[in-house]
Amino acid sequence: MPGPGQSTLPFLFISALLPLAAAAEDLFQVYRDAQRYDAAYSSARQALEAGREKLPQGRALILPTLNLTGDATRSRFDVESSDATQSPSFTRSSSSAQYTLLLTQPLYRPQNWNQYQQAEFQVRQAEATFALAYQDLVIRIAQAYFDVLGAQDTLSLVRAQKAAISEQLAQAKRNFEVGTSTITDTREAQARFDLVLAQEIAAENDLRVKRLALDTLVGRTDTQPNPINAPVAVPPAQPVDADAWVAASENASPAILQAKKAVEVAELETEKAKAGHKPTLDLTTSYGVNKNIGASPVIAADQKSTTGVVGLAFNLPLFAGFATQNRIRETLALEEKARTDLEGTRRQVAQAVRTAFFGVQSGYGQVRALEAAEASSQSSLDANRLGYQVGVRINIDVLNAQSQLFQTKRDLAQARYNVLLGHLRLRQANGTLQAEDLARMNTLLVP
Predict the structure, then answer these.
(1) In a shared domain, residues 338 and 308
(2) Percentage of residues in the chain with pLDDT exceeding 70?
(3) Residues 2 and 239: beta-carbon distance below 8 Å
(4) Is residue 1 one of the residues assigned to a domain?
């Protein structure tokens, strides 16, 4: 029996080991097109790339820094003297330049190390957020794809119903002309025919809207999904225990993983706040050059000096106006909030998993019941037609049986799509949904 992290539709996909059809409109190809075009998915991908940059930014806080500073000046001295033994006035110019190369290596900075560890967890958070967007795209594509197929099925069934009612209307008119039935039969059939015309118009518009939604996802027009290869054997969820699916979500659900990393980030934020009381120690090394060119009142000739310094810089915080204590209390409260959010996320995911699981189980039961109802409705229609021909049934009985049969067919087709989508939604709920699930579903489609 497959686990929650494995495929739940193994016997549905009869050709899972064969190469997938390369039809341009199959489900997996449509998903690939949406990956390149969908704005929400592209935005999530760029957000992931931005989030991954937090790790090298955090690493930079524990690596050495190297800075070069320098300046240059030009001076002019104009001197006037009243001493007869000296020149009455003279002008001197000088220039100076200096630069310093400073290397600093943090030796003990707890806040920087905590920031680096936070960056690792923040990257995991960004990846979990992207996983949510990835799974959301899979669901949106499958939903839009099956919506189009469902709308096509509805339109086909409405048109088939229209043809059947048209035939019944023609028969009622013939019977009225030869006097074997009343005008009531004709008017009842005409009323049903007018009603199904309105249903056909609504079905055509619904199909246009559903196709537009799919085209908007993939970025091209007139997308033609491959139909389901009927009849389809729709299975129940495997394993048949909701708790097994919930248990798998603990390590697979992106929402839970995101909340877990938020707790770890909050814990490190508290450690950073506590580090406000701790000393820091840096290794510093500098090398400087100073040049003076031209005499000046204080320098008689050109000079050049160099300086090299190696030392340790120590800093011990003593008092910061209670800011550190207040910050610690704040981060402790935020840490407790993150834990509460994690527990809330676990409960939400568990509820979503169970809801999706029972939805699949219920949908599976509905499909089986509707399959039986379809066979019964077909038998009822055949019996009513025969009864109408021999005179023991009236026209409205046949029309009602036709309506019941086509409504059952529409409900059955929709129920099958809902169960297939339900399997994907169940995997999304517990975090095990992958694009490969769409690839396996392609074996259900007619190339």
Answers:
(1) no
(2) 89
(3) yes
(4) no
